[in-house]
Write a structure and sequence with these properties.
The complex is a heterotrimer of chains A (273), B (289) and C (255). With 273 residues, chain A is α/β, with parallel strands linked by helices. Chain A has 9 helices and 9 strands. Chain A is globular, with a radius of gyration of 18 Å. The termini of chain A are far apart. Chain B has 2 domains: 56 residues, no CATH class; 223 residues, MetI-like fold (Orthogonal Bundle). Chain B is elongated, with a radius of gyration of 24 Å. Chain C folds into 2 domains: 30 residues; 222 residues, MetI-like fold. In chain C, 80% of the residues lie in helices and 0% in strands. Chain C is built from 12 helices and no strands. Chain C is elongated and about 70 Å long. The chains are: A alpha/beta (273), B mainly alpha (289), C mainly alpha (255). Chains in contact: A-B, B-C. The interface between B and C is large, with 61 and 59 residues.
Chain lengths: 273, 289, 255
């Protein structure tokens, strides 16, 4: 039974709308001193797109991700996900989230961790197993299904975390520097794997990162943000051909794009003083 | 990662060797002490403890430092053994019942407190303070109020279990990784699901910490209650054999051994339960301690 | 922050009021001689204040503190041994740790046989009770030090004694204090219970004798004093801890 698991992005496409639309979104954190994290951000993300958010620390990219995911309420502006409010989208389980830390539950096996969202959604046991197995295959961890998280390396744990996020086939995947804690080689390998997974699932991905090379390698578009208060400085198209592989990283076009992004980043950094 | 699978079982051989060494020291010390303090003609009398011709100070020698082999025989001797072990079981039964009752109530109260800050602020300070206060002093009072030794034992055991379990469970329920909570939010999990799937499992290590302490404390509490005039139980046995004098020296020490074994046994059972409930823990990794 | 404590304080007074008004008496069908009223207890506290104070400080308190110190020192020494000798770590430590699970109170008659009716026997019982927690905790503090810290010492060609003084000992202090806090409570319990039958003076004696002659207000007064004494002891240990290890994270981050 596909209850609650239909790809509502098809609904969004049918209405000709973006998968994710941010309109004039601002965010101020109240506290001892008010912190203006985001300033009038507007962005439109198409279904199935891979969009990266990049910028110096404190530019609000993680905050933006959490706003989309209804983990924080915006101070002003509107956000729609598949034509719904973030809250409605969250309640109908339309997005999966991957953090920088794997956040696996240590008392559950790898398989049980992947099944967690399906348990919450009360999917039938047999189907839980089926899907979890399929996803573990997809991320290449099928033999580790019965292991516990601490038995796996950081990169492997992160792959489990991705499998978990995809277990209920959300139309949107929010990823907050998921490979930030890993070494370079593992990171590049997981980048390739993520692209494979993405091409199979056609999810809309919003990807926060610090790494310019990663953003260029993965994305269709890159959103460069300025430091606090975070604004969209520029949105760059990445027109490198797909499928991308390790050769792509050596292509001259790749280096040009990296240089361009770096240039914009330096600009925003200098502008902030 | 291979070391991960190695069982962190204590080294039984080393423990056995040290235990035997200690036993040997005991045997040696008690023999020397005996020979030094008891004149040869009184030795038989000093051992039985019943011979009135033996001078008093020689008669208590075996009460002070008995020969371990004689203590052991008192433990396995069919007349004594049944009595001793039965008394132990009576004490243990009350301790266990109180432990379970206190544990369940403590856990439940913590679940309530985690939902209501008001409740927490009203009651938690008492739970914390009571851990610093010699709670067991209430044992005699409880007994004098209820006059039923079983009830009194159970109440005290429940009391000493309840507070640490409440405090620790609360700590455990609260100390959840914020990202793990965010994950649950992103999945639109219901409150019940968050408790069942996240908070409670992650609180179990803390709960067991408290349970292990409470296991020992329950036994001690039950024994202390008995010291105030109960009829049955290992504490009563210790009291009586002490009063009846040197003839019961080995029984006294046998009772002490049984009381010690009760505490050890109960603790071990809880520790095993912990191992089972928390079998996902990487305790199997090579721990440094 | 003071407003935080208001609910607890209110509960305290509410319970006290209920007690004085006989709520618990009605609930459990008790007579006054079984459960004295708070005012009677307060009266007994005032009437016997000098005796109770002497009991508390000169006897029970002294026994608890002396026993705690002895047990802690002995326990620390044992921990040092176990941390230095691998065989003892594997063989002796588990045995010492198991003392935690043994009702040492059962030994108190024997202590009396050896050391007489007076204070030394109580001190001995307390020392035995506080020994085990110290061994377990001090050992953890002395032994389980992260690789990197030890390697730093190695790279400086530090002698074992240096490593002990400069690394193991300071590292173990938070654990030692943790054990001392546990020990403070145990010490009070030990001193009290050890006094029950086998002593001349002390809070435990006051408690048990007055229960036996059904003079409950005085018995309860003794308990109140014992509770306060326990809290004071705990607070003193905490104060020393804050003074000695202000750098530790548990002291730094005052919740």
């Amino acid at each position: 039974m596909a209850s609650g698991l239909q790809l509502s992005q098809t609904a969004a496409v049918a209405t000709g709308g973006a998968a994710i639309a941010l309109d004039d979104v601002s965010m101020t954190f109240r506290g001892a001193q008010a912190v203006r994290a985001l300033e009038r951000v507007s962005l439109s993300i198409q279904p199935g797109e891979f969009v990266s958010l990049i910028g110096p620390s404190g530019c609000g990219k993680s905050t933006l991700l959490r706003l989309i995911g209804d983990l924080l309420p915006p101070t002003s502006g509107t956000i729609t996900v598949n034509g719904k409010t973030p809250r409605q989208a969250r309640l109908s389980r339309e997005y999966g989230i991957v953090f920088q830390q794997p956040v696996l539950y240590e008392w559950r096996t790898v398989m049980q961790n992947v099944q967690l969202p399906l348990e919450v959604m009360r999917v039938a046991r047999s189907e839980q197993r089926e899907r979890a197995n399929a996803l573990l295959e997809l991320v290449g961890l099928a033999e580790f299904a019965q292991r516990y998280p601490w038995e796996l390396s950081g990169g492997m744990q992160q792959r489990v975390s991705i499998a978990r996020a995809l277990s209920f086939r959300p139309s949107v995947l929010l990823m907050d520097e998921p490979f930030g804690a890993l070494d370079e080689m593992t990171r590049e390998r997981l980048n390739r794997e993520l692209l494979n997974i993405w091409s199979e699932t056609q999810t809309t991905i919003v990807f926060v990162t610090h790494s310019v090379a990663e953003a260029v390698f993965l994305s269709d578009r890159i959103v460069v943000m300025s430091p606090r208060p975070g604004r969209v400085e520029v949105v760059l198209d990445v027109d490198l051909p797909r499928p991308r592989d390790s050769e792509t990283r050596n292509a001259p076009a790749f280096f040009d794009l990296v240089a361009e992004v770096r240039h914009h980043l330096r600009e925003v950094d200098d502008a902030s003083g | 990662m291979n070391a991960a699978k190695r069982f962190r079982l204590a080294d039984p051989l080393a423990i056995l060797l040290v235990a035997l060494a200690l036993l040997a020291i005991w045997q040696l010390a008690s023999s020397l002490y005996f020979d030094a303090n008891v004149a040869p003609q009184f030795r038989a009398g000093a051992i039985s403890g019943a011979d009135p011709t033996v001078p008093a100070e020689m008669r208590v020698v075996q009460m002070k430092l008995p020969l371990p082999n004689l203590v052991l025989s008192a433990l396995v001797n069919p007349e004594n053994a049944a009595q001793l072990w039965l008394a132990g079981l009576i004490t243990l039964r009350s301790a266990v019942i109180g432990f379970v009752v206190g544990g369940v109530i403590g856990f439940g109260l913590a679940l309530l407190m985690v939902q209501s800050r008001l409740l927490e602020r009203s009651l938690l300070p008492y739970a914390i303070i009571s851990q610093m206060v010699p709670v067991i002093a209430l044992g005699p009072i409880v007994y004098s109020i209820f006059k039923d030794e079983n009830v009194a034992r159970i109440l005290i055991a429940a009391y000493v279990t309840f507070f640490p379990v409440t405090v620790n469970t609360l700590k455990g329920l609260r100390s959840v990784d914020p990202n793990a909570l965010a994950l649950m939010t992103s999945l639109a999990a219901s409150r019940r699901q968050v408790y069942w799937l996240l908070r409670i499992p992650s609180s179990l290590p803390y709960v067991f910490q408290a349970l292990k302490i409470a296991a020992t404390a329950s036994v001690i509490g039950a024994i202390v209650v008995e010291l105030m005039g109960a009829q049955q139980g290992i504490g009563v046995t210790i009291l009586r054999t002490q009063y009846y004098g040197p003839a019961n020296a080995y029984k006294l020490w046998g009772a002490i051994v049984v009381a010690s074994l009760l505490g050890l046994l109960f603790f071990r059972v809880v520790a095993i339960a912990e191992r089972i409930a928390l079998r996902w823990q990487p305790e199997f990794r090579s721990a440094s301690a | 922050m003071m407003t935080r404590t208001i609910p607890a304080v209110l509960v305290f007074f509410a319970l006290l009021a209920a007690w004085q008004l006989g709520v618990f008496h009605a609930l459990f069908r008790l007579k006054a001689f079984q459960l004295p009223y708070p005012l009677d207890i307060a009266q007994a506290l005032v009437d016997r204040s000098d005796v109770l104070a002497r009991d508390a400080f000169q006897f029970t308190g002294l026994e608890a503190v002396a026993g705690l110190v002895i047990g802690a020192v002995a326990g620390f020494g044992c921990a040092v041994l176990c941390a230095s000798v691998p065989f003892l770590r594997r063989g002796l430590l588990p045995i010492a740790a198991s003392l935690n699970s043994i009702p040492i109170i059962a030994i108190s008659p024997i202590a009396v046989l050896w050391l007489g009716f007076g204070q030394p026997s109580k001190i001995a019982v307390v020392a035995l009770m506080t020994f085990a927690p110290m061994v377990v905790n001090a050992f953890k503090g002395l032994y389980s030090i992260d690789r990197a810290s030890l390697e730093l010492m190695e790279s400086l060609a530090a002698s074992p004694l240096d490593v002990f003084w400069r690394l193991r000992l300071p590292h173990s202090l938070p654990y030692v204090f943790s054990a001392l806090k546990i020990g403070a409570t145990l010490a009070m319990i030990g001193a009290l219970v050890a006094e029950f039958f086998n002593a001349q003076r002390g809070l435990g004696v006051t408690l048990s004798t007055n229960i036996q002659v059904a003079k409950m207000p005085i018995a309860w007064a003794a308990i109140v004093v014992a509770a306060v004494l326990g809290l004071v002891l705990y607070a003193v240990v905490g104060g020393i801890e804050r003074a000695l290890i202000p750098w530790h994270v548990s002291i730094r981050s005052r919740e």
